[in-house]
## 1
Amino acid sequence: HHGSGTSSTPDFLAKVAPSLAIFQVGHRNRYRLPQADVYARYEKMGIGRLRTDEAGAVVLRFRLGVPDFEQTSYRQHHARYWQGR
């Protein structure tokens, strides 16, 4: 999801009931997505959020027969040198 204002209405999100949203966002994107109100909507509904412009590559690991998944991101394990550890 990129975070535009028309693709994630509250009714849609309530029916789908996601536990995590990954916003595919380029650094300094010219469209300024995700829109602030859309991003806040996910938070208000208790949906976890990751932004690729902040997290880098996102990895989801699923196990057969297990409904939950493990999430990690590139920058979680490879912080930029100026951010320290």
## 2
Amino acid sequence: MILEPVSRGWVLCLAMIAGSVSAAGTGEKTDARRWSPDAYEKPWQEGDAVIPEPPRESNFAQLQGADLDPDYEVFIDKGSLSLLADKVFRYTAVVQAPSGPRNVFYEGIRCGSKEFKIYAFLSGDRFRRRRDPQWEQIYDSGATAYREVLIKDFVCQDSGSPADLETITARLEKGDRDARRGLKLRKREPATDQRF
């Protein structure tokens, strides 16, 4: 048998193929971006929270829900609602105590993680930003139970993402009408309740 001489180009090509096969055989990844699906997904990044004007009572929607503390009235300022690309629902909440004091917060909630963040509070006639607002877990008792009610009954879908802003606004307006007529919101049954 006669062996023909191999050109340098073929030798180089064969060496490259052999090198890639040996790297694949050891489980070594030569380019992490090429092999990792996570490399193509951008991590979640919060958008800028633009502090709105102080709330006007003409824009108030009274929040109602079976889990609300009956000792407080809670209103959401419909003029402050926003839902940006970061999927954070932002709003102004007005919490009215029976004895008269009123607390007003501009805050946001995240459906997937069930967290809230207070960006600012009303002081006098204007909002003041918090120095270092942090995401915190939502609790379903006491005067702050309204955040849980917002997540369960008005803002979030079963998929863990927020509904669109038009749907959320319609739900708040319907809840406001029912509250003013004295109708009580019943507890929501998971995945079967289609009130809105």
## 3
Amino acid sequence: MFEKLFKYRRVLARHRDGPFAEERAHYLSHRAQQGAAKETLLKMARELLVVSREVNLIPGQKIGVVEIEAAAGRWARRQQRHRRARTQRWSRGLFVLTATQWLQFLGRFKKAEEKAVPFSDLINDFATYLCHERGLSAVTIRNYCWHAGRFLRW
């Protein structure tokens, strides 16, 4: 896959010889089959190389949000220090998004445990009412339930 994306020998070698090259190439092929544009794949390949270097990927171990965000913070601070970014926001966000999607694809993403939502039975009843009695759209129902949940937690 890297051969299709990169023309220069050194850049190609960097991606081919980088950590988890086979897994990165497999993910990029998957995204290409889904119809991702070449520019998108190039950006993704560059970010995947960074992710594979920054996140401590131990074979067979799942990686959680906390580890991804810590690595993203280190990467974003380094980008800002070297004046490649004015703020950490975009570097951090792209890193977290890319790492999360890649690790989910590999089956190595550890989801955070969901906290019990207070009054969830009442919110579910409210959602059912909004759907069946009022005939509201799914997006509207989700918004109404979010506001109701905030109110009930308060």
## 4
Amino acid sequence: RRLATLLDRPDLVGARDDLSVQLAELLTALGRAAEALDVLAGRSFQPWEGGEGRVLAAWDAAHLDLGRQALDGGDAAAGLGHATAALTPPQSLGEARHPLANTADLHLLLGDALDALSVVDPSRADEARDAWRTAADQQGDFEGMAVQEFSERTGASVLALRRLGRDDEARRLRDGLARYVQEESGHRATVDYFATSLPAMLLFAHDVQDDHDDRVRALRDQLAALDRHVAATASA
């Protein structure tokens, strides 16, 4: 319903950065990532209070979605293109990646695309392993203006470790994520001191506890996916 409302008012979306990035987020969430990239690439964004990192995150999410689709469809070159584009965002997004931000998911995609290309060009195999090492070694993240020990990108680091044959490290990182999820499951979320003014400024009202619980669910789903990957590998 929210997407339909935004699509029905292109005049308002075209006038506002916050509406444009909300449109892009919804398009990617509903399987229309190519359209999301059109929205993001079609304007020059300016930073705004409460929107820090959202434009870049939307850019990453759209390219990740399309890159994974490309790899699943056997188009490694397109997968590589999406990984590269995500890692080199245009200045028009109005944001630069924080030095502490985790890019394990992007480098995992990059490594997987290079690995697929190595079938016809063996020289790409070393590049693939370099990308996987970058993903594997990025543990911890910078989210919500704070350093986090685990994040939605931790699973990508676990997978990269497994691709490199560093199974013991992968197991320890996966188990650490499981403990973190268990601890966070009973946590009561509060509004960060530096964000106390945001509820009156945000485009759509939201509850910080709902946001926290959504993140915990996403991490729990990530754990389940990692465990399915191990089971599938063992039975292969």
